[in-house]
Design a protein that fits this description.
The protein is mainly beta. It has one helix and eleven strands; from the N terminus they run βββαββββββββ. It starts with a strand and ends with a strand.
Length: about 120
Amino acid sequence: QVQLVESGGGLVQPGGSLRLSCAAPRTIFSISTMGWYRQAPEKQRELVATITSGGSTNAADSVKGRFTISRDDAKNTVYLQMNSLKPEDTAVYYCNANYRSALVYWGKGTLVTVSS
């Protein structure tokens, strides 16, 4: 059973910052595009950002300029630095590992709440 272990969620005020982390097994992490998705209440899960094994990144328009995805290959960990958080960023954030769509794994999710 492949486990992706997320951490770093919590409650933050609007304008604040959080950093999410996701650790994955090396055998999966080294070959996968890693990503973060989120699902707000009563909404569909949506892409937040991805980073390939080579370091190329992609992000949703709604988070560009505020969120940064990065990966540490030595620690088999992907990060999501979230700055200038808005109430509409409130959601459960899920870590994803994807190898050519043939192997796809999800974490259990971590809740981010942006509220004053």
